[in-house]
TrEMBL record:
Pfam families: SBP_bac_5. The lineage of its organism: Bacteria, Bacillati, Bacillota, Bacilli, Lactobacillales. Residues 84-469 form the Solute-binding protein family domain. Belongs to the bacterial solute-binding protein 5 family. GO terms for molecular function: peptide transmembrane transporter activity. One of its GO terms (cellular component) is ATP-binding cassette (ABC) transporter complex. GO terms for biological process: peptide transport. This is Peptide ABC transporter substrate-binding protein. It is found in: Cell envelope. Residues 1-24 form the signal peptide. PANTHER family: PERIPLASMIC BINDING COMPONENT OF ABC TRANSPORTER, PERIPLASMIC OLIGOPEPTIDE-BINDING PROTEIN-RELATED. Gene3D superfamilies: Dipeptide-binding Protein, Domain 1, Dipeptide-binding Protein, Domain 3, Periplasmic binding protein-like II.
Length: 549
């Protein structure tokens, strides 16, 4: 899920930590539209970006996934300690001996915020809507393990043939093409949430355009949201129809979009907000403040080259740019928030060798080194092959403070190393960056992706030739073959599958099909009274949040 694009998400258990807040001295109280109770509280958060979309079938960014995760609910969610537990499901599924058929008993007390019961057909409808080619979903690839998905994508059969069946109002059956070790984690993601067909039909094109044109089955309902991509304020209100409402302590969570770190810091120090993200100099200045903490995320930030353009089809040019980047200086001096210099695409502390328990990053090795002399050598080769003496590149990013700092650093590093290369930076609102990325309207684009499940494939599959999120149009037959083997031939052989994924990253990095930059961390200043926010990828599950009295 893209986060500067995005999306989000279930991260590895080793990276999911119950966070105790440390922060500002002011406790927010405020008024809410919900009935008051002694354990119901209000919390205020600074967001970095507007919400591009809240439609579970199309949303593909971290902000939208965060909204969906808190206002919706699928078969599973993570508990306070990051353990996967039944949510919309009443219990863990029955799985056939061959690992292909999952049967779920659904919770009978789950209802939508409009009072409709949540039934198995809501899952069937939502999933089939997402894989319907007319929906043009960027997250439909997540349904690839389900039987008939590929035939639907190829136009051979209709979306209603996706193998998910309602065996009754509260019984759901899912059939896979081949066993998937992380299937239950996958089913906890927003694209697998149920969808209310009546609401979608009644609202038509207005569906998900604002908080009033949605219906919710999660711990909160969205409020005060007036327009995707434009509204800078919204709120979560406690959902009084949620089946587990007794364990939701927050009555209201307010969000304000503030893109400048200095402005956000002023709001925090004035007691006007309870949680902000800080980067760069501010993060370095506040590192000893008792309000400060930094949390590693299973999130890769990378640059995609637009390989539909002749220049970026040149492997030597792609390598020249990568060797020109001093990633350690970037994370230490520019970001300063605890982020880690990338050594490959897959982040650290997320996935581990099934036999030795070694980190994927250790087994894969360091593919990314700073070497300005090699950068110049590759640039010289690229110029000869392309028949050019100079090159002008546009580097696209979102307009969040951290993203702007990263691309400005890259601009200086590339121009300072590769004589004749000019880099222009375009920092635009997230919704615009997403749109331009989808259209291929860029030369190079800064992208973030958060782990949807704790497996290397969550990152590697993004660069399969036919993956809709492969905005740069990288294509390599050997890479595709390793990925396919990991999902089919070797899907039930953990050792062979692991080796397939190691080889796939090796091919991707040796051809510099994508340019990884850093593994994101988030540095926060947080009200010390706030407890229990669980990171799940790059966004949070506020169901478990409370404020100490």
């Amino acid at each position: 899920m893209k986060n500067t694009t995005l999306g989000y998400l279930l991260t590895a258990a080793s990276c999911i930590i119950l966070l105790s807040g440390c922060g500002a001295s002011n406790e927010k109280t405020g008024e809410t539209n919900q009935k008051s109770a002694k354990n119901e509280q209000t919390f205020s958060v600074v967001a970095k970006q507007e919400i591009p979309s809240i439609d579970a079938s199309v949303t593909n960014d971290v902000v939208g996934w965060g909204v969906l995760k808190n206002t919706g609910e699928g078969l599973f969610r993570s508990d306070k300690k990051g353990k996967l537990i039944p949510a919309g499901a009443a219990e863990m599924p029955k799985i056939s001996e061959d690992g292909l058929t999952y049967t779920f008993k659904l919770r009978e007390d789950a209802v939508w915020s409009n009072g409709d019961p949540v039934v198995a057909q809501d899952y069937v409808y939502g999933w089939q809507r997402t894989v319907e080619p007319k929906t043009a979903s960027e997250v439909s690839y997540l349904f690839e393990p389900i039987k008939n998905y590929q035939a639907i994508m190829d136009g051979k059969i209709p979306a209603k043939e996706l193998e998910v069946k309602a065996l009754g109002d509260h019984e759901l059956e899912v059939t896979l093409e081949s066993p998937v070790p992380y299937m239950e984690s996958l089913l906890s993601l927003p694209p697998f949430f149920p969808q209310n067909e009546k609401t979608i039909s009644e609202n038509g094109e207005k569906y998900a355009s604002s908080s009033d044109h949605m219906v919710y089955n999660g711990p909160f309902v969205l409020s005060e949201f007036d327009g995707a991509g434009t509204d800078t304020k919204w709120a979560y209100l406690k959902n009084e129809k949620y089946w587990d409402q007794d364990n939701v302590t927050m009555a209201k969570i307010n969000f304000d979009v503030v893109k400048e770190d200095a402005t956000a810091l002023n709001l925090f120090q004035d007691g006007q907000t309870d949680d902000i993200v800080v980067t760069g100099e501010l993060a370095q200045q506040m590192v000893d403040d008792p309000a400060f903490f930094s949390q590693d995320m299973s999130n890769a930030t990378y640059v995609e080259y637009n390989q539909a353009k002749k220049e970026f089809q040149n492997e030597h040019l792609r390598k020249a740019i990568s060797y020109a980047l001093d990633r350690q200086t970037l994370v230490d001096q520019v970001l300063g928030d605890g982020s880690i210099a990338a050594t490959g695409l897959v982040p650290k502390n997320m996935s581990f060798n099934p036999e030795t328990e070694a980190d994927f990053v250790k087994d894969s090795g360091n593919h990314l080194k700073y070497d300005p002399e090699k950068a110049k050598e590759y640039w010289a080769k690229a110029k000869t092959e392309l028949g050019i003496d100079s090159l002008k590149i546009n580097l696209l990013s979102s307009d969040a403070d951290s993203a702007k700092k990263v691309v400005e650093y890259m601009q200086g590093a590339i121009q300072g190393t590769l004589k004749g290369v000019t880099v222009e930076v375009s920092s635009v609102p997230l919704s615009v960056r997403l749109e331009r990325g989808n259209k291929g309207d860029f030369d190079m684009i800064l992208v973030g992706w958060g782990a949807e499940y704790n497996d290397p494939s969550v990152f590697l599959e993004l660069f399969a030739s036919d993956n809709i999120n492969n905005s740069g149009k990288y294509t390599n037959k050997e890479f595709d073959q390793y990925l396919k083997a990991s999902a089919t031939t070797n899907a039930s052989d953990p050792k062979a599958r692991w080796n397939d994924l190691i080889e796939a990253e090796d091919v991707l990095m040796n051809t510099m099909g994508v340019c990884p930059v850093y593994q994101k961390a988030e540095a926060h200043l947080r009200n010390p009274k706030v407890k229990g926010i669980v990171p799940s990828g790059p966004e949070y599950d506020y169901k478990w949040t409370s404020i100490e009295k």
